[in-house]
Amino acid sequence: MPPRCLPAAWRLFRHCAMSDSTIFHARNGTMINVSGLTKQYRNGTGPVSVLHGVDLSLFSGEMVAIMGPSGSGKSTLLFILGLFLAPSQGTYRAMGEDVLSLDRHAQAVFRRKHVGFVFQSCNLIENSTVHQNLEMPLIYAGVRRRERQDRIEDALAQVGLSHRINHPANFLSGGEQQRVAVARALVNNPKIILADEPTGQLDRDNSRMVLDHFRNFVADGTGAIMIVTHDPEVAAQCTRVYRLDDGVIVSCT
Amino acid sequence: MAEILRFLDLLRVSTLQVLRHRRRYLGVILAIAFGTCGLILVLTVGRDVKLNLNQDLELLGGATRMRVSFEPEPGNSRIPTPRWFRRQTIDAVRNIPGVLDVSVILMKSGPSVSNVKDRAHLFMLNGVDGEFWSVNSFLPHHGEFFGVDAVNKRLRVCVLGSELAKTIFGSEDVVGRTLPIDGDLYYVTGVLGGIGVGDWTQSAFIPFTTAQDRIKGFVFPDQMHVRCRTWEDVAPVAAAIPKIFQSLQRGDNVRLLVAWEMLKRVQKVAWWMEIFIYLAIVATLVLGGMGIWNGMMATVQARTREIGLKKAIGAEDSDILVQFLGEALFLSLGSAIIGIALGSGAIQIVSRILKSSPSEDLFVLSVGLSVIFSLLLGLGAGFAPSMLASRMEVVSALRYE
């Protein structure tokens, strides 16, 4: 395992190697493959199991829902898939790569290159404009300024918010904020989008709009989305639905 | 190159962030700006202020003035040593570094006589040069003092001590009157005043050149008054004068009268003042630094979700560290720049009041020091909060309420 403070040349090499792997596995179709995933926390009284041997997969062109009651481990599973949490046991391959074996830096590189996130409560950067919100992931990804502007405009056009580019994010409506969050997830051209209750705080029209954007994203068959949701209407529009109960996948329909 | 551009982009984001929250940091900005302003002011015009203070204290006590005269001739001396100052000796003393001005005095051994209104008045007569008044910080009580011109033209003019003027003329105005001294008539130009006239109130003063020409007993200057630029110059000048005498007049009979005790007191007062000023500046800057630290800690806590979000969208620990450290540096550096602008304005005002022209080199040096100090302050105060931010776990940060 290389140290965290890798020289720039090594980072570049890793990045190129990862890109090749991405192309190969996108053709292969398996975007995420998880097997035997368990997660245990420690609290004051002892270990608490949240996930017990979860197996799931996500293929390109799919929009998959994870449903389950509160406390069933949906968000924890999504955080593990987003490489924010390390599982206690199990394997996790994303786009053919054993991502759990990557160091912290390589995981961050993988995340910003290939994964987009949409959270329930929008999570836009406060006191910033829509443009600045969309620019942040591009800055972290090292995209040059000239290219950034094009990408931001493209992403906003996809969610129909081109006219809001210089608006302060705080002053947008809830639906618009969530669409900006979708645009931010799309701006780095990810292959996978992980969404945690993306329509949880939206009305029917705005929910429909967000799901339309998701459908457009997977329509060309190169990307995939995994959505954690309570909403049966959202689940109904997904390719497959995993039902999680008390940390165990009880069905996949 | 890409890494550098990314770094610059992060700094730009940090700058915008501080500008957006400028009201939150107003107290910190003002503290650092005033501290920097004070630092620049003290470093640049401190010496001028000290000189001014020196002059004010000089009026009170004459701590920077010394009298040079000769030891009395020993009774058993076979070969008399010279007891007057040669021209080259006076010039050499004038050229000692730290000497502001030199005045020479011819003192008559016996009293002079003036017969006015059928009364004979006895008093001490002194031949002095044009610098005598400024070297001793004397001010005219009435009229004016004679200057270098009167000395060069050997005019028959005189200045009277205040008590002597009262004794001879009573309450009448003496300026413009003529006074007979040792048989010659002299035109009275003024009456001696100012703090520190001491035992000169019963004396009269005429140009030393006139005295040499007209009054018996006046030959060579036998007393010298030396005024130093600051009290710090007194000790080196006092050490240099006997050496000059040794080499130019081959005499070791010179007597130096320096108000050492007064000098020590004045230096002590000035030292304490200087210490207090520097302490106040350092305290202001440290408070500013603590303000940055405190403000950044509060910011990190308030922006916990934002930190989690940024990590979720691809930021690494180092990106967050750079971003928050950039904010702290921009805050301290920006405040210092405001302080430099304020300091520059304050220097103009102070130098106009003191009628001095501060050194540009000192100003540049003080600006450089201020910038370095502010950078260190920003780094020092911003490091801990930035580290805290960079080490946050994404999940707990995103779930932070």
Strand order, biggest sheet of chain A?
A: 6-7-8-3-9-10
The residue-averaged pLDDT of chain A reads 82
- Counted by DSSP, the helix tally of chain B is 13
- The whole-angstrom Rg of chain B is 33 Å
Oligomer: heterodimer
Number of strands of chain A: 10
Main beta-sheet strand count, sense and barrel state of chain A: 6 strands, mixed
Overall number of structural domains of chain A: 1
Biggest interface and which pair forms it? A-B, 28 and 26 residues
The N- to C-terminal Cα distance of chain B equals 38 Å
Rounded Rg of chain A: 18 Å
Roughly how much helix do the residues of chain A carry, as a percent range? 25-40%
Largest sheet of chain B: 11 strands, mixed
> How far is the first residue's CA from the last residue's CA of chain A?
39 Å
CATH architecture of chain A: 3-Layer(aba) Sandwich
The overall pLDDT average of chain B reads: 84
Total of helices of chain A: 8
Give the class of chain B from helix and strand content and strand pairing.
Answer: alpha+beta
- In the CATH hierarchy, the third-tier topology of chain A is known as Rossmann fold
Descriptive key words:
heterodimer, A: 253 residues, alpha/beta, Rossmann fold, six-stranded mixed sheet, four-stranded antiparallel sheet, 39% helix, globular, disordered N terminus, B: 401 residues, alpha+beta, eleven-stranded mixed sheet, 17% strand
Overview of the molecule:
The complex is a heterodimer of chains A (253) and B (401). Chain A is of the alpha/beta class. Chain A has one domain: P-loop containing nucleotide triphosphate hydrolases (Rossmann fold). Chain A is 39% helix and 26% strand. Chain A contains 8 helices and 10 strands. Chain A has helices spanning 8-28, 74-81, 104-114, 130-140, 145-158, 174-186, 204-219, 232-236, and strands spanning 30-43, 46-59, 63-67, 89-94, 97-98, 115-118, 192-196, 224-228, 240-245, 248-252. In chain A, the strands form 2 sheets. Chain A has a 6-stranded mixed sheet, sandwiched between helices. In chain A, helix 4 (130-140) packs across helix 5 (145-158), helix 5 crosses helix 6 and helix 6 (174-186) packs parallel to helix 7 (204-219). Chain A starts with 7 loop residues before the first helix and ends with a strand. In chain B, strands 1, 2, 3, 4, 5, 6, 7, 8, 9, 10 and 11 form an 11-stranded mixed sheet that branches. In chain B, helix 11 (317-354) runs antiparallel to helix 12. Chain B has 13 helices and 11 strands. Helix content of chain B is 57%, strand content 17%. Chain B is elongated. Chain B is an alpha+beta fold and 401 residues long. Chain B folds into 2 domains: 2-56 and 266-398, no CATH class; 65-260, no CATH class. The interface between A and B is medium-sized, with 28 and 26 residues.
